[in-house]
Design brief:
Blueprint lengths: L21 H14 L5 E2 L11 H13 L11 H15 L8 E4 L1 H13 L5 E6 L3 H9 L3 E6 L10 H4 L7 E5 L11 H13 L3 E5 L22 E5 L12 E4 L2 H14 L5 H7 L6 H24 L4 E2 L7 E5 L6 H12 L1 E2 L1 E2 L11 E5 L4 H13 L2
Parallel strand pairs: 1-11, 3-4, 3-5, 5-6, 6-7
Antiparallel strand pairs: 2-8, 7-8, 9-10, 10-13, 12-13
Helix pairs in contact: 2-9, 4-5, 4-8, 10-12
Length: about 375
């Protein structure tokens, strides 16, 4: 007798049994606390606290008034893809054909398409830890074997060919520079070496570049400068301050352009049209966006100076993005710490378990994307709570 016939339902698919993205659970707990009237200092959220740039908002209002806003092609608006291609020329001195660009529903949509286009069931893909958890969770849901590469402060929590060699053979490598959660970067020379190594070993390099533009020592370089076979995922969410607009893009090697387009046609039809129209204006808003980066720089320095005063002095180099990754092992379990900080101090921060399943209980990620006064107050409360 089938499970339906006897009144029960089949179990959810195995692929749906992914780990939670714990930072979203921290956000929910913070919202629940705020709903009771208690204050919350948000150092958990990996998103700008600023709205989209004024030019983007104006373009969106004009489109709402004057545009039908029907589907675009699966690859995205031609005008937007041309602006993105020009962005690579302006920022990186790299020539990109707009036909290589696929506009996606956020960087998350870019990873969905990239992973499906690049890897088959049973392929092996290296994902460094600490790293963004959704890489692991998505790949696992697609039947890809995830190889966890434990990086350390010695390599700035980034992969190197020396770390990767013993893991061969494998089919793909996911990198992020600047990274989430560590905020560390891969320098141009190191990225060139890594890109060449991947190309020579037939390893598909997927480069998460969503934090480009938010750097504090030197500008980030793009993987397409190092490898003709690399896939780049980018987003309007971070530097461009457009998280809720859900818009990103892929720069794809020639052999994957058509597969990515076909997957996009079937999975999403197209990215949101309103967001695409508005995003064309984003590349004219750098003065406003650089003011955001200036605030991140101030917030970053507050944390780098203030956390040691609170007894948290083992910090990853915060080269870019808007995170400080801190070793809190001398203070206790990071999951228990973050829970206590929220309930007793009103400080929301994220346990490293999200980013490193085996060592994450020793680390906490602090986001400095929010309000400067909130960060200063949080540091004062942490210091007083010692």
């Amino acid at each position: 007798m089938s499970s339906l016939a006897n009144g029960s339902w089949p179990q959810p698919s195995i692929r749906s049994g992914v780990d939670p993205f714990r930072v979203m659970e921290v956000m929910r707990a913070a919202e629940e606390r705020a709903a009771t009237g208690k204050d919350v200092l948000h150092l958990e959220v990996g998103q700008p606290s600023t709205p989209a740039p004024a030019g983007v908002l104006a373009a969106a209002h004009a489109a709402l008034d004057n545009d039908v806003l029907g589907y675009t092609t699966a690859k995205g608006l031609a005008e937007l893809r041309s602006r993105i291609a020009q962005h690579y020329d302006d920022w990186y001195d790299q020539s990109v054909d707009p036909e290589q660009i696929i506009v996606t529903t956020g960087a998350s949509g870019a990873f969905v398409l990239a992973f499906l286009a690049a890897f088959d069931l049973g392929d092996r893909v290296v994902v460094p830890s600490p790293g963004y958890p959704c890489y692991r969770n998505m790949l696992g849901a697609y039947g890809v074997e995830v190889i966890d590469l434990l990086t350390t402060a010695d390599t700035r929590f980034q992969p190197t060919p020396e770390l990767l060699e013993p893991l061969l053979p494998f089919d793909g490598l996911v990198i992020a520079s600047p990274s989430n959660p560590a905020g560390t970067m891969i320098g141009a020379d190191e990225l060139a070496i890594l890109g060449s190594w991947c190309h020579e070993n037939k390893v598909r390099l997927i480069s998460d570049e969503i934090y480009h533009g938010i750097t504090f020592g030197y500008p980030a370089d793009t993987a397409i400068a190092s490898s003709d076979s690399a896939i780049v995922a980018q987003s309007f969410s971070k530097y461009f301050s457009m998280t809720g607009w859900r818009l990103g893009w892929i720069v794809a090697p020639d052999e994957l352009v058509q597969p990515l387009e076909r997957l996009g046609q079937n999975l999403a039809i197209a990215a949101p049209t309103l967001a695409q129209v508005a995003a064309c204006a984003a590349f004219d808003c750098h003065e406003e966006l650089q003011a955001n980066v200036k605030r991140y720089r101030t917030n970053r320095q507050l944390l780098l100076d203030g956390l040691p005063k609170a007894g948290i002095d083992k910090l990853a180099p915060a080269d870019g993005a808007f995170y400080v990754y801190a070793d809190v092992s001398s203070h206790g379990d990071s999951l228990e710490l973050s829970t206590r900080w929220l309930s007793e101090l009103g400080i929301a921060a994220t346990s490293g378990l999200d980013f490193d399943p085996s060592r994450g209980r020793d680390f906490v990620r602090f986001s400095y994307a929010g309000d400067t006064d909130d960060i200063a107050e949080a540091l004062q409360r942490l210091e007083q709570a010692q």
